[in-house]
C-alpha cells in the first residue's frame, strides 16, 4: 500500500512513480559517493571538544538563574524578552 493524498491516481501508478524516483536517485547517490571518495579519501577520528567547566560555571553564575527562568516561560515573546534581559544584564558586568 502506498500512502499519499493522490485521490485521482491508482495505487499502481503512484507506486511506479515512487520506484522510478528511487531508481533515478541511485545515479545521484553513486556520484556523491564517488566524489566523496575522491575529495576526502582519508577518514579521521573525531572526538568532541572537552567542556570548559570554568566558563560554564562563570556563565551560570552571571545569568544561569535568569536564563533558566526565561526558558520556563511558554509564551515566545515573553521568553525572548527575558532571555534578552539576561543577556544585556550579563554584558553590563
Main attributes of the structure:
93 residues; single chain; mainly alpha; 0% strand
Furnish the topology, listing elements before pairings.
Layout: H1 11-39, H2 53-72, H3 76-92
Question: Could you describe the 3D structure shown?
Answer:
By secondary structure, the protein is mainly α. Helix 2 runs antiparallel to helix 3 (76-92). It has three helices and no strands. The protein has helices spanning 11-39, 53-72, 76-92. 2% of the residues are buried. The model has no long low-confidence stretch (mean pLDDT 86).
Please state the oligomeric state of the protein chains shown.
single chain
Runs with pLDDT <50, length 5+?
A: none
Structural class: mainly alpha
Proportion in β-strands: under 5%
> What is the radius of gyration computed over CA atoms, rounded to a whole number of angstroms?
26 Å
Summed over residues and divided by their number, the pLDDT gives a mean of 86
Distance between the termini: 62 Å
In short:
With 93 residues, this protein is an all-alpha fold. 71% of the residues lie in helices and 0% in strands.
Amino acid at each position: 500500500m502506498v500512502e499519499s493524498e493522490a485521490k485521482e491516481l491508482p495505487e499502481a501508478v503512484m507506486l511506479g512513480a515512487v520506484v522510478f524516483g528511487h531508481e533515478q536517485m541511485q545515479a545521484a547517490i553513486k556520484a556523491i559517493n564517488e566524489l566523496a571518495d575522491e575529495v576526502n579519501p582519508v577518514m579521521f577520528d573525531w572526538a568532541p571538544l572537552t567542556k570548559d567547566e570554568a566558563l560554564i560555571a562563570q556563565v551560570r553564575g552571571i545569568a544561569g538563574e535568569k536564563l533558566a527562568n526565561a526558558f520556563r516561560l511558554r509564551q515566545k515573546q515573553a521568553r525572548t524578552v527575558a532571555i534578552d534581559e539576561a543577556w544585556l544584564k550579563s554584558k553590563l558586568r
